[in-house]
Amino acid sequence: MNSSFLTAVYVLHLVSVLLVALYGVHRLALLRSWLRMRGRPAPPVPRLADPLPKVTVQLPLYNEEAVAERLLAAAGELSWPRDRLEIQVLDDSTDGTREAVDRGVARLRADGFFVSVLRRSSRHGFKAGALAEGLAEAGGAFLAVFDADFIPPTDFLLQTVPRFTSPDIGMVQARWGFLNDSDSLVTGVQALTLSSHFDIEHGTRHALGRFFNFNGTAGVWRKEAIVGAGGWRADTVTEDLDLSYRAQLAGWRLVYHGGCVAPSELPPTLTDFISQQQRWTKGASQTAVKILPRLLAAPLPLRVKVEALFHLLGGMGWLAGALATVTLWPALLVHGTGSSALAWVPGVAALTGSCGAILFYYMVYALLEPRTRHLLRYVPLLPLICIGVAPFLACAAVEGLFTRHGVFHRTPKYGRLIDGMKGDIPYVKRDTFRRSMVAFSLLAVTASPLLFVGNTLALYAFPLAMAVPAGYMLTGVLLVRERAGGRG
């Protein structure tokens, strides 16, 4: 094999593992800040204003027949004076959800609630378009948003609305809880990553005065903040992230209240999980292209800008990880022949990146949510799932850098009691994905002897070289089971 080609691939591998290490160091920095803040006393619960403000509860729906009535019933259980509460159903559905909504709305109206149903002639702008139309007709000074798979606790408004203690607070985000985190490996891994996202990322960024974001649901916005930031826009597929950054650049402060937990349903299949993660990854890249030039030019502290770079360009971590696995085996040829004096660099970098990520997720279940079973079951398998999905999320991240708008593919909602329903994956065809997993796995197994080329064992690469085929195989097996009608 051409030595120049091998050298070029080795350099690409080196750069990619260094980027992985950089993201790992960032994870460790967030974790360190979070650990230092854990002992601080919780702020006192603010007193409710008198009179209570009017709140509009917005429920955006699109073909959510399995969970629509459950959501409407939960909205009717919210503790708030009925004369100060408006429920707004933003129903873009084209299936039996419309009838389910009508039944749920009829029950709420019979109980004395003011409920309006907005149905558009087209799904223009997707969720952002529906929220924008609802905003124009909302009568509340505050707007609480819940996706179809959420069941807000009865005291949700009592916990969040009082957090608007200053006129410059534009949004309060609650923590997500999980109804089905113990159902499967797929839901367990998601709960692990999302718990760290809320408890460490949101909690730390908020406490340190960094920018963070509304998660599209289980949050309350001040109507004035949405309008002042330019309203909902559909030029990215993550309208929540886009609005959050525009609002903060306009001077609004966002608040994270992790003490308020809104239970939700996690995507039960790997297919749906990949679809959701691709949309989030692509949308973050789109938001980075749109927002970062303005943010970097703004008179903000350097620490705020640096954190925003890591936040919005998180998809580049997936790209680096995917490149690191794909270029591993040619890089081992260079390493094994002893032609590189920098053979130790990728080892240290890979170890730093891996340890940073694993500790980041480990600490939440070890300290904040002591759950030994989940810890032992899901933390070791998390790297394998990440390896398996990395190439596809990397493609989504790159796509987001060069495209605007895009189709908002909703994540299917099944309801905890509904089994056997499988959603379609919009970005990745199942057959293509499954075959790719098999091909990459075979390549990795075939290339494993490169670890011993020239009688030099690349010790740093051994765990990664074994994890790559294992990750692809695990992902492929899960998809095959889903296709056959089983659960992940």
Overview of this structure, please?
This protein is α/β, with parallel strands linked by helices and 488 residues long. It folds into two domains: 3-35 and 312-483, no CATH class; 55-266, Alpha-Beta Complex (Spore Coat Polysaccharide Biosynthesis Protein SpsA, Chain A), CATH 3.90.550. 55% of the residues lie in helices and 10% in strands. The chain contains 17 helices and seven strands. The protein has helices at residues 3-37, 68-76, 97-110, 126-137, 156-160, 185-207, 223-228, 239-249, 270-297, 302-312, 315-326, 328-336, 344-368, 372-378, 382-402, 430-447, 461-483, and strands at residues 55-61, 85-91, 114-118, 142-145, 169-178, 219-222, 253-264. Strands 3-2-1-4-6-5-7 form a seven-stranded mixed beta sheet, with helices on both faces. Helix 2 (68-76) links the parallel strand 1 (55-61) and strand 2. Helix 1 crosses helix 12, helix 8 (239-249) runs parallel beside helix 9 (270-297) and helix 15 crosses helix 17 (461-483). The protein is globular, with a radius of gyration of 23 Å. The relative contact order is 0.14.
